[in-house]
Amino acid sequence: MPNLTYQVRRSLAASTEEYSLTGTALLWPDGSAPFAQIKTVRIYSVPGMWIFGAGKVAFGSRRCAITLDSGAAIELTSQHYLSFGNFEDRSPAFYPFVSALIARVRTENPAAQFVSGMPPMLWWFWFLSFGLLALLLILSIALGLLGLTLEHKNSLGTSLLFLALAGLLIGPIGFLRAIWRRRTRDLNSGDLYRAV
Fold first, then answer.
1. What are the two backbone dihedrals, phi and then psi, of residue 31, each rounded to the nearest 5 degrees?
2. CA dist 130 to 21, 61, 113, 123, Å?
3. For 84-99, how does the pLDDT look when each residue is reduced to its tens digit (9 = 90+)?
């Protein structure tokens, strides 16, 4: 089995890290993780964010979180830091590396658990944050329309303003749908592209 390598730089403060797969372990400069000691492999994606008029303000990324029997964690990401505000998508190298990692862990450690989807705490944070944002927008629109209707000041201009505010709901609701698809589930398929 040939060795595979994957390189990634997480941030300005970090240097480029190189991870390698051998027949029995995941290696990196500061340590190693024998496949037999890997407890969980989780793959998931973190959605990017677009703002109308501003474009992409947060880049999406794919992640592979590895938990060892000792409780130690290793996280690989497809997002490679180049410079301030400038990231490179390393998915073309990330997917083959993670696929090979999963195949080797399945062979060496049949007891390991393979899941896809965000970790539960992260998922709940995103879901509740954007759920609350959508709820607040809905309440603001409903109460504003109710107040204007009760005072008989519901002109065409204010109606158009509230229609524009209702259009803003598309963002948080669309993001909620994307988050819902990223909840935790067993990784039964070897197809990582569909799993994340």
1. 175, -165
2. 38, 19, 30, 11
3. 767 788 888 898 999 8
State the distance between the two ends of the chain, measured CA to CA, in whole angstroms.
Answer: 26
Q: What is the DSSP string of 14-59?
A: SPPEEEEE-SSEEEETTEEEEGGGEEEEEEEEE--EEETTTEEEE-
What architecture is the 4-116 domain classified under in CATH? Roll (2.30)
Residue 192: predicted pLDDT: 52
**Beta pairing, strands 38-46 & 113-116:** parallel
Comparing C-alpha atoms, which of 9, 73, 90, 78 is closest to residue 39? 73
Q: Are strands 25-28 and 17-21 parallel, antiparallel or unpaired?
A: antiparallel
Task: Please write the tens of the pLDDT for every residue from 155-195.
Answer: 777 777 777 777 766 667 777 777 777 776 676 655 555 55
Among residues 69, 71, 70, 63, which one has the least CA distance to residue 8? Answer: 63
Give the contacts of 117 (CB within 8 A, at least 6 positions apart).
42, 44, 123, 182, 183, 184, 185
Closest CA to 2 of 105, 110, 104: 104
Quick one: tokens of 59?
């880049």
Least confident of 36-45, 67-76, 175-184, 185-194: 185-194
